[in-house]
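Lab manual, section 2.4: Encoding a predicted structure.

Procedure: take the sequence of the chain (155 residues), apply the prediction step described in section 2.3, and record the output as structure tokens. A sample record is shown.
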Amino acid sequence: MCIRDRYCTVFGDPHIRTLGGQHETCLTLGAWPLVDDSYFAVQVTNEPLGRSVGASCIGKITVIIKSLTGCTEQKMYEATREFLPSAFVDGTTHSEELPSGTAGESRPAGKWPTHRPAVVIRELVANEHVEIFIRYISTRLTVRLAGGYLLFSVK
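Recorded output:
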């Protein structure tokens, strides 16, 4: 059985590509849920773009990896337009190990911890590009900071 990859992204004012492939644009201010499922939640906070009344941008992205028995403890990640951290809020970069034999993605040498964490965060470019990989559901969350603007995607 083949499962097609699904992809969701949000950027700008906000422009959203849903997991179903639809494109949406809407002006919104304040916090709103982008994703909330059994495994993780993503909340986006939009703020006015400068003095413009008709435009907003993503001011903060909060990712919560939900606690799941046998997989991981809860982890939280917060990024703002000023700073894209390379670690979770608690200062760690990964969760506990998965039990051996658990399916997951292959790791390039030297790029990931030597054990098999259920959740790992990796900084690809300092203060510009961070990836969070949730191994037990084979999901990659990407947070980017480009030109002072936050972008988020899940695949």
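Check your result against the sample. The chain has a mean pLDDT of 81.
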